[in-house]
Amino acid sequence: MKKEDLNMSNSDKAAQMKHEAEITRQHARYKIPAKIEIDGREYKIDNWSVSGCAIINLPEEYLHKFAEGKMKFKFDNFETAVDNLKLEFLKYDKYPDKTIMRCRFTDLKPDQRAVLQQIIDSFLEGSIVIQDDILHVVKNQFTYPDRKAKEISHKKAWSILVLIYLVIFVLILFLGYVFYNRTFIVKSIIGYVDTNISMVRSPAPAFIEFLEDVKVGEELNNSKPFAVAKMLNGGMKTLKSPVNGKILNIYIHNDEFRDTGEPILSVVPIGAQIYVVAHVLSKQAEKLKIGDIATVTLPDGKVFKAKIVDMKFPAPISSEKSKGVTNTYANSIDYVKVILKPINFKLTPKQLNESVNVTIDTFRQ
User: Fold this and answer.
1) What is the rounded distance in angstroms from the CA atom of residue 274 to the CA atom of residue 298?
2) Fewest CB atoms within 10 Å of the CB: 49, 50, 161, 194?
3) Which residues pair with 86 in a beta bridge?
4) Which residue from 334, 340, 291 is spatially nearest to 313, judged by alpha carbons?
5) Taking the model in full, what pTM does it have?
6) Phi, psi (rounded to 5 degrees) for 348
7) DSSP states of 143-206
């Protein structure tokens, strides 16, 4: 590792940085009902994945701290739980009717991950359904009508006949509704707000010292250093943002040690397009095309229109396996990632990571 002073050349400064546009999630999150117990108190979970969760109304005092929790799932006649989950609280968002604390799971054990993944897989394949915040296991049940013949009056027979016709009419409407939804309506399995984000990472094992007080939401100029990396061997490098943008997340405290490549902070470029990402079943995605208009619903109930601008289809499993074992199943081959641009509606960086519902009526396109 070469020692350099603060007045290094532009090429040297560029070489010290490692950044890339990244998606804001490692795993897709699902609105599967669950609760979590922390320090003896129970809180509802807004959404979760095998990498973390968003907790409703957890006190702000937990922000940037660690804790241990117990995640609970209530089924129709029993309850299961994942104990001893180690949590790191990363972000705290306030809404008019609730607050959301976003956290990640640290040191997730294989058996804990297996339970969480099993619940997600069962939900996606339809063997678990949601009703009134309770998970129900789907069962095949067959009932047979009573075949005993009974004598009834003409008036009663007419009433029964009218009732039968009414039931048939309602059934036809229901079947028509089901047919329309299955044929023309495409809904996202999961959806969230996303954008291109630049990451500032440690160029080498070093202690990172901020040159000034940095806060989430502040603007960074790519020509002005905001921190220095004090190398273990005594050298020092200045750190700059790769782009002109606003700070989205800060991952360290001042003068904290970071190894090579570990994140320091993330930056949203000025003017970056904030868009919606929807994961859609591959078979349903065949009905979609670039330019289709979707209806997007935010967690606060706001609804807006968005246009499909891109569709990212998964690579064949043979190609995925060629990337290495760790990435083989990172993206399910059953889902297509649909990118949507809002129409006459502006999303803000504060809404990044929010779960949304996306519905596309292909019949009206």
Assistant:
1) 14
2) 161
3) 68, 106
4) 334
5) 0.47
6) -115, 160
7) -----------HHHHHHHHHHHHHHHHHHHHHHHHHHHHHHHEEE-SEEEEE--EEEEE-SSSE
Phi (first) and psi of residue 29, to 5 degrees: -105, 150
* DSSP-assigned beta bridge partners for residue 267: 198, 247
Structure tokens, 104: 């990640």
Among 265, 159, 173, which Cα is nearest to 220's? 265
**Rounded-to-integer distance, Cα 209 and Cα 140, Å:** 62
**248, 267 in Cβ contact below 8 A?**
yes
Please report, for residues 128, 163, 215, 244, 291, the alpha-carbon distance to residue 362 in angstroms, rounded to integers and kept in the order given. Answer: 27, 35, 44, 39, 11
- DSSP string of 203-223, one letter each residue: SSSEEEEESS---TT-EE-TT
% helix, strand, coil for the chain, step of 5: 20, 40, 40
| 242 in Cβ contact with 225 (< 8 Å) | no
Q: Is 190 exposed, middle or buried (0-12, 13-18, 19+ CB in 10 A)?
A: buried
CA distance 72 to 110: 18
pLDDT in tens, 285-311: 899 999 999 999 999 999 999 999 999
Contacts of 147 (CB under 8 A, 6+ apart): none
Report the candidate in 25, 26, 44 with the shortest Cα–Cα distance to residue 34: 44
How far is residue 268's CA from residue 219's CA, in Å, rounded to a whole number? 9
Length of the chain: 365
Give per-residue pLDDT as tens, 62-90.
999 999 999 999 988 888 899 999 999 99
Question: b or e along 307-316 (b: 16 or more beta carbons within 10 Å of the residue's beta carbon)?
Answer: ebeebeebee
Q: What is the C-alpha separation between 38 and 15, in angstroms, rounded?
A: 44
Pairing of strands 206-210, 227-231: antiparallel
Pair 87, 68: CB distance under 8 Å = yes
Q: Other CB atoms closer than 10 Å to residue 330's CB: what's the count?
A: 12
